[in-house]
Amino acid sequence: MTGLNVTIPYKEQVFKYLDEVDGSQKNWGFNVIKIKDGKLQGFNTDSDAFFETIEKWLPEENKLSALI
């Protein structure tokens, strides 16, 4: 196994077992655990998908990236 998906309510329970959390995701939480070199790494693919959708669908003047 090279990784797995995590859903609520398990996200909070497994967080303590992660060796690393992607730096940009510490405030967002995580939904994917990647197993690499025996270490557990947490990532959030939901936030990437959300921002990608915003970029495609909102008019330029309303994009969140301008606010962040």
What would your notes on this structure say?
This protein has 2 helices and 4 strands, in the order E-H-E-E-E-H. Strands 1-3-4-2 form a 4-stranded mixed beta sheet, with no helix packed on it. 26% of the residues lie in helices and 22% in strands. It has 68 residues and is an alpha+beta fold. The radius of gyration is 14 Å and the shape is elongated. A hairpin with a 2-residue loop joins strand 3 (32-36) and strand 4 (39-43). It starts with a strand and ends in an 11-residue tail after the last helix. The longest helix is centred in the last third of the chain and has 13 residues, at 45-57. The protein has helices at residues 10-14, 45-57; strands spanning 3-5, 20-21, 32-36, 39-43.
